[in-house]
Amino acid sequence: MRRMSACTRRVVRLLAVALALPLGGCISAFPDEALQGVDRKLTVAELRAAPPGSYVNRRVLVGGEIIETRPKSGMTEVELLSRRLRVDDSPEQSDRSDGRALLRSRSFLDPAVFAPGRRLTAVGTVTGAEERRLGDLPYVYPVIEIEQTRLWAVAPAYPAYYDPYWPYWGPYWQPYGAWGPWPHRWHRW
Question: Would you say 149 and 120 are in contact if contact means Cβ atoms under 8 Å apart?
Fold first, then answer.
């Protein structure tokens, strides 16, 4: 069997990258059918600032951190702290927020699964706004009827793996050789 030359390998790699880049831009958490008619530019901040009823029946894509999940008779309500969405429709992990929204689902969403702090992205239809108290202040929540959701994996609080001996290991290996700050067994003090 003949081996490929270095030039041929470079061309193959270049073609693989050239084909992967356009396909990589088509990533989304939802199928294309679910995103038809969705206004991606409409944010929770714009929904809150608009006069009541302005965006009713508009399909939106919202995401953020779950604050609370409340099961009620015939529906489940999720209070969401909105975050900007990344290219793959996952919410950013940052301190910036557009505000809060109420997401309502006709199906049961388990509060143990849809727990506070979990990241969520949802496709839904704006059904109006509701004023509630947030602390001592009145707060206007946009209300969105959920069609589809995506819960994102919980990020670990620690690195996946940390090797305390990398890259130096063994009883006689020192990062600075014989001139390091640590004594070697052949030193006489």
Answer: yes
Q: Residues 71-111: pLDDT tens digits?
A: 999 999 999 999 999 999 999 988 899 999 999 999 999 99
To which residue do tokens 């429709």 refer? Answer: 89
CA dist., res. 119 & res. 83, Å (int): 9
Number of domains, the chain: 1
Q: Provide the residue range defining the domain that includes 110.
A: 28-151
101: left (phi over 0), alpha (psi -120 to 50) or beta: beta
Distance CA 182, CA 170 (A): 14
H or E segment at 20? helix 6-24
CATH (domain of 54) = 2.40.50.140
Q: How far apart are CA 112 and CA 179, in angstroms?
A: 57
Closest CA to 76 of 108, 111, 113: 108
Residue 72, φ and ψ in degrees, nearest 5? -130, 170
Q: How far is CA 79 from CA 28, 34, 148, in A?
A: 23, 22, 16
Q: Is residue 45 part of a domain?
A: yes
CA–centroid distance for 40 within its chain: 16
pTM listed for this prediction: 0.69
